[in-house]
Amino acid sequence: MRQVSTSDLPWHPGELRLQQQHGSLEVMAELGPRVVRQYMPEQHQRFFRALPLLLFAARANDGQLYASALFGEPGFIRTPDQQHLSISTDGAHPSDPAVIALQQGAPIGLLGIEFHSRRRNRFNGVVTEHIAGRLTVGCQQSFGNCPKYITRRQRLPNPAYGAFAQQAFHHPDADTLAFVQQADTLFIASGFDDGQRLYNRGLDLSHRGGVPGFIKVDEQNRLLFEDYPGNGFFCTLGNLLQNPQAGLLLMDFTRGHLLQLQVHTEIIATASAPRLLRCAITCGRWLLNASPWLWQPLPDTPPAGAPSS
What we know:
Blueprint: H1 13-21, H2 25-35, H3 42-49, E1 53-59, E2 65-71, E3 77-81, E4 84-88, H4 97-100, E5 107-114, E6 119-131, E7 134-145, E8 153-157, E9 165-169, H5 174-182, E10 185-192, E11 202-209, E12 216-217, E13 223-226, H6 235-242, E14 245-252, E15 257-270, E16 273-288, E17 293-297
Antiparallel strand pairs: 1-2, 1-5, 3-4, 4-7, 5-6, 6-7, 8-17, 9-16, 10-11, 10-14, 12-13, 13-16, 14-15, 15-16
């Protein structure tokens, strides 16, 4: 097998290790430079400009990773050129630690998702400016994702938006755990940084989905869910191999709340069973009435590609 340098590929050592285990290292070495770009093609620019929602990963000064979301009317995201996104943060929850972490020079992982069409695109980069409610991000990686495991939804206004409050905790209560177990959508922030200034380092925000109940809770209140087959890039799991800290986001689509969880992850892989991800919760918070939108499922659920049990 030919040697692959991590400096000229979009993959870092954790991603390469999993690709090698999966037998796809050479395929991904050829595919990666074609599909993971350092700029947005025109269709991605149009996609981001039309979104009312943008998910993101951020890292606080203490090293904690957060997954969160920004909202606005379509047009709140601008594309001044093919290498930058300009995003309004005026409508963000004022107590969101992820937004507070978005300072100049900070890494950020962005995920645009269009629930009704199941389209999603990633944009990972660095904050170049965050002034007066306007965030500018420079591109390090831009690539598309498949529509698997996304529940189709339509957007409705949230009449309670703006009545902001938060509820922080170290141990989730029974109601929070029950909410998690009924979720069909999860977002996970992960990251890898070894100090090298390479475009395959930084943060990433990815989607996980399934039928309600795909997230299990064990007797120690750890979350457990199957890692369904995806695009084979192993962006999230590759990061977690290098750094097991992660941030989770679950959206309460019916009330407009956001649930953020900080977790320590463990990848469970055996030859005889599907790969699992186990997450021990270290702390968390509810951001109440954070979303101006409620999201009603469209009738063709379960999500595309999700196992039925």
